[in-house]
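Appendix B. Raw example, untouched.
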Amino acid sequence: MKSITICVLLLALTTASFSQQTLQSIPSVKTDYLQKSKHQKTAAWILLGSGVTVFAIAAPGNVSFDVLGTLVVVGSLSTLGSIPLFIASARNKRKARAATAFFKMETAPVIRQGSFVQNSFPALSVKINLK
């Protein structure tokens, strides 16, 4: 009984290791890059808006001198931190425009009954132009 259980478990593991994902579960490269670009741009606008708001609070001079330094540092770091996010967002949007995905049939040599034969299999190709 113990050996049958071990054999069944080994067969189950072998079957799971050679399985493929279905086509519906493969994410689109273009939509991933566009979503990433959108999230980065949103974060950049939030950082820029909070930095400008902090500067607007500190500008009239109604803030004590102890708090003024902290506000200036936080505002400037927030504003400067938004710049790399805007740049990364533009880069990801450019990559999304250049990304394409398509199916093509590939062949691979396989040994079958003592001789080499060309076995065809479908392949998902992703092309990303990085200019």
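End of appendix B.
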